[in-house]
Design brief:
Shape: globular
Strand order of the largest sheet: 6-9-10-11-12-13-14-15
CATH superfamily of the largest domain: Glycosidases
Number of strands: 17
Largest sheet: 8 strands, parallel, barrel
CATH topology of the largest domain: TIM Barrel
Number of helices: 17
Number of domains: 3
Helix content: 25-40%
Structural class: alpha/beta
Distance between the termini: 48 Å
Bound molecules: beta-D-glucopyranuronic acid
Length: 657
């Protein structure tokens, strides 16, 4: 094996090796996606049963694929009986997703006659964003190098095909292959220098029903076109993007569109010319509209050179402040991509007030499964429970259908351009995700984006059952470890929503004041009396960006959800929490507990030694050792820091340095 097959390992589940016949009604077996689906089915039954696909009748099982236009786009219905399974779908993606659904059931040892499922995607767009650079490095990558790029060049191989299989197996239908920070050679991805190679990759994706997208450089008219400016209202610039887009869509038929990070962290954008984000997005949108393309415009726009002395400037406000006023002005083929929180992928943040704050604009929720701030795929941190919280959040943007899930599925506004995107956690490591257990986030994001109703536990159970070949009790144990892991990570890192306190730039391990006196807008404002950022109406006013009753709840420390208390308020160490603990005691207790629970996770993993493949076991065990060391560091630095600031002793008399 050259690389892990993750959840598509198809380990043997039964001795019943009777062959299968595949019958296709109204779908052509020659269709590229249907063809991939059948090839996958063949792989699956070979692994699960040692069976094959046959043209013969006789004593065989039958997989019958039927075109049924009453089924929703990309949806499927699967129904089994003793003699085989019938799969109904209205389009090719429905066929491949249906086949993967059958394989999931078979892998979970469900009997043919018990297979019965009807599904339709919750979200029209289900995307992965690679932060892969063309030199092969990956921004915030913790799993090796890029499997698309190397030495400013692009390559396509068997691994890319496996990657597309993995993505299709969980319902991903769009992939942005390059980093949002588009520099150097990546600017040339939309030129002849790379069209052929991009096309090759696009063809592989197309075999699995996936559209390819590219991040573009807003300054491309200057860098590629030799223009003086990239002002979105300049006629030369408009003409340049129109001609360029015509070329791109001609060279790459079926291409999805552009993802744009503008005016953010040093990237060029419309602000340079006194233009708005809407001006920038709409100009590009018009250039790709004739070809059915879309513009995914990121809302991660903030001042990254602000003054920490200024208590009124608040990075959390920026997205809303920059984008809200133009609600209704973004063109129909623009979709704004909004990070789940207002800051940046911390272990705990409130939900971005832009989600639902916009009521006339297409919205794509952005989450990060690359564990930038959540343990670098060293520490175990199953993120699906966090994503569920985001999706379930009631924004109060309308009387009904007001959750984030409603907004990004298109239910709230009845729009078609809606969905979810994740910054992906893959690389060319043997196991794809650095930590073998981090694949649960890769699998989980896709499953959740396809069906936001699935619970974190259902997803974890599926992933465990498909990935490992072990007894029920061990499956339960591993599932339980995954489900607890986010809370554990939160406990030993930053308390009650304050975030940051990480080693600057690297973002792994503690450094309580690491970002405190810097320009990034990421502060905890701890002093000898208390900690937290006042974002109420007496502070930065961020809480007022929400609808009622959220705004009032966040505004009042008595009503604010406690897990977000320090995000919204500056709180004295002696403040009594609902549990009766003081804030300082909570900081001590949670850090001691979190570290102890990290040790328990490591012990639980060790108890699975005999039921897990020895190489997987060793790889993961090594990570848990590092996690425990990391948890100790966090515990000791955070506790010591706040002990020294507050001069209040731990009630339980534990050792604080
Ligand atoms: C931050 C990362 C940075 C990314 C940026 C982004 O630290 O590397 O470029 O987000 O989302 O989390 O653009």
């Amino acid at each position: 094996q050259k690389w892990s097959q993750m959840w598509l390992g198809y380990h043997r589940v039964s001795k019943d090796n009777k062959n299968w016949k595949v019958i296709c009604n109204d779908f052509s077996k020659e269709d590229r996606v249907v063809n991939s689906a059948i090839a996958e089915f063949a792989k699956g039954i070979k692994g699960y049963f040692g069976a094959g696909i046959t043209e013969d009748d006789g004593d065989v099982y039958v997989l019958e694929i039927i075109k049924d236009t009453s089924i929703a786009n990309e949806g499927y219905s699967i129904k089994g009986e003793k003699s085989g399974v019938t799969l109904r779908a209205s389009d090719e993606n429905g066929v491949i997703y249906g086949v993967f659904a059958i394989l999931r059931k078979l892998g979970a040892r469900i009997r043919l006659e018990d297979i019965c499922e009807k599904a339709a995607p919750s979200n029209p767009l289900r995307m992965m964003n690679h932060w892969d650079n063309m030199d092969g490095s990956i921004e915030r990558g913790y799993s090796g190098e890029s499997f698309f790029f190397e030495n400013d060049d692009m390559y396509v191989d068997e691994r890319t095909v496996d990657y597309a299989r993995f993505m299709a197996s969980v319902g991903i239908n769009g992939i942005v292959i390059n980093n949002v920070n588009v520099k150097g050679a990546a600017t040339y991805l939309i030129t002849d220098r790379f069209f052929d190679k991009v096309k090759e990759l696009q063809d592989i994706f197309a075999d699995y029903g996936i559209k390819l997208y590219l991040s573009i450089n807003f300054a491309a008219p200057i860098e590629l076109g030799g223009l003086e400016v990239c002002d979105p209202l300049d006629e030369g610039v408009i003409a340049w993007w129109q001609a360029k887009s015509k070329e791109v869509f001609e060279k790459l038929p079926g291409f999805g569109g552009y993802l744009v990070k503008a005016d953010s962290e040093g990237r060029p954008g419309p602000f340079t010319y006194g233009r708005t984000q809407a001006d920038g997005a709409n100009m590009l949108a018009d250039a790709v509209a004739p070809y059915g393309g879309i513009i995914i415009w990121r809302c991660f726009v903030y001042n990254c050179t602000q003054d920490w002395r200024d208590y009124k400037t608040d990075r959390a406000r920026a997205g809303y402040d920059y984008f809200k006023d133009f609600d209704g002005e973004y063109h129909d083929n623009v979709i704004l991509q909004i990070k789940n929180g207002p800051m940046d992928f911390q272990i705990r943040e409130p939900i971005s007030p832009l989600l639902g704050g916009l009521t006339k604009t297409n919205q794509l929720l952005e989450v990060q499964i690359a564990q930038e701030y959540t343990g670098h795929q060293i520490d175990l941190c199953y993120l699906i429970p966090m994503f569920k919280e985001v999706l379930d959040f009631r924004t109060y943007c309308s009387e009904e259908n007001d959750t984030v899930a409603d907004i990004v599925s298109g239910r709230t506004m009845g729009n078609k351009l809606a969905g979810m995107a994740a910054v992906i956690n893959t690389g060319n490591d043997f196991n794809w995700t650095g930590n073998d257990l981090a694949a649960a986030n890769l699998y989980g994001f896709g499953r959740l984006a396809y069906n936001t109703e699935l619970s974190s536990e259902e997803i974890a159970r599926e992933w465990v059952a498909l990935t490992f070949d072990m007894d029920k009790a061990s499956e339960d144990k591993l599932t339980d470890m995954l489900l607890k892991s986010r809370e554990i990570y939160e406990k030993y890192t930053s308390p009650l929503g304050i975030g940051w306190m990480v080693t600057p730039h690297v973002h792994y391990g503690p450094s309580v004041d690491g970002y405190e006196y810097s320009r990034w807008g990421t502060y905890h404002r701890a002093d000898h009396k208390g900690i937290g950022v006042d974002r109420s109406d007496k502070g930065t006013g961020y809480a007022q960006q929400y609808y009622e009753p959220n705004a009032s709840a966040y505004n009042d420390p008595e009503k604010c959800p406690e897990e977000l208390l320090l995000f919204f308020h500056h709180i004295p160490y002696t403040w009594k929490l609902k549990s009766g603990q003081t804030l300082i005691q909570y900081i001590y207790d949670s850090h001691f507990e979190g570290e102890a629970e990290a040790e328990q996770l490591a012990a639980d993993w060790n108890s699975l030694k005999d039921v897990v493949d020895s190489e997987v076991f060793a790889r993961v065990a090594e990570r848990f050792e590092l996690q425990v060391a990391n948890a100790k560091e966090w515990r000791d630095q955070v506790n010591s820091y706040f002990f020294r600031k507050s001069d209040i002793a731990d009630e339980k008399g534990r050792k604080i340095y």
